Amino acid sequence: MTSSSTSGAPRSPDGDRGDLFDPGCPTRRLLDRIGTKWTSMAVKVLAEASPEEVRFAELQRSMTGISQKMLSATLQGLARDGLVGRRVEATVPPRVYYRLTPLGLTLEEPLAALREWAEAHMAEVDRANRRDEAS
């Protein structure tokens, strides 16, 4: 953490702004947890369904290309971080339902902003990559 910051910048509870180069930085820790495409997709699907719950199989169908193992690991991580709630019905086979917690719902807006940025600018990024590959 560092004590210098820009006015109006978010601060940690101790008043310091995070330093992305510090492994303890809140932003870095968050990006380590949610920085995968599968995590952002799961949050999006669950946010769109909110306040309803979504079954595992429905999540997997919505997230084209994700394996059962990867979806399970993604949901376990989100649940461990308090972003996703899980409910199991004691049927045979068990039915498992997922929903965003109130904390998880607060993540939808920043992820939506990132998606908007991507839609507005990825064509430019792709052009830059093609120019670089051609040189």
From TrEMBL:
InterPro entries, alphabetized: HTH_HxlR, WH-like_DNA-bd_sf, WH_DNA-bd_sf
Keywords assigned by UniProt, alphabetized: DNA-binding, Transcription, Transcription regulation
Residue span, HTH hxlR-type domain: 25-126
Spans annotated as Disordered: 1-24
Top-level taxonomic group: Bacteria
PANTHER family: HTH-TYPE TRANSCRIPTIONAL REGULATOR YODB, TRANSCRIPTIONAL REGULATOR, MARR FAMILY
Protein name per Swiss-Prot or TrEMBL: Helix-turn-helix domain-containing protein
